[in-house]
Amino acid sequence: MSLSPAAVAARRLLTAASHSSHEGGARTWKILTIVLAIPGVGICMANAYMKAQAHSHGQPEFVPYSHLRIRTKRFPWGDGDHTLFHNSHTNALPKGYESSDH
Questions:
Q1: 12, 68, 73, 75: which has the fewest Cβ within 10 Å?
Q2: 41 with 64: CB under 8 angstroms?
Q3: What pLDDT is attached to residue 48?
Q4: Rounded to an integer, what distance in angstroms lies between the CA atom of residue 35 and that of residue 37?
Q5: What is d(CA 4, CA 6) in angstroms, rounded to the nearest whole number?
Q6: Closest to 80 in 3D by CA, of 89, 88, 71, 91
Q7: 3-state class percentages of the chain: helix first, strand second, coil last, to nearest 5
Q8: Is the dihedral of CA 65, 91, 56, 44 positive or negative?
């Protein structure tokens, strides 16, 4: 089966185009990373920082609900009343927050 000269030329053109697109792929992604990704991450970080500065994070009033902070058994670490990842500013103990100063 013989191809026409126009089909052969088209095949060569497409073959050359497909080979050249693979060679510049790494360079394209490097440019996209530098031009778009890094500034985008920086803008998101600045946005998160400004939002954090705008809100005051005070402790909510402690309400001793009977269905929360139930301790049927002591934790095996520390004094047994604090969870493993306890944050004294955020997490309340069964009797209330540990301290009011921050």
A1: 73
A2: no
A3: 95
A4: 6
A5: 5
A6: 71
A7: 50, 0, 50
A8: negative
CA-atom Rg of the chain in angstroms: 31
Question: What are the pLDDT digits (tens) for 60-76?
Answer: 888 888 888 888 898 89
Asked if 96 contacts 64 with a C-beta cutoff of 8 angstroms, the reply is yes
Backbone phi, then psi, for 23, in 5-degree steps? -70, -35
Provide the whole-model pTM: 0.42
**How many CB atoms sit inside 10 A of residue 81's CB?**
14
Q: Are the C-beta atoms of residues 75 and 81 closer than 8 Å to each other? A: yes
Please state, as a whole number, how many other Cβ atoms lie within 10 Å of the Cβ of residue 75: 13
Site of tokens 């089966």: 1
Q: Cα–Cα–Cα angle for 77, 80, 82, nearest 5°?
A: 90
The CA distance from 47 to 88, in Å, is 27
Positive or negative, the CA dihedral 13, 16, 19, 25 is negative
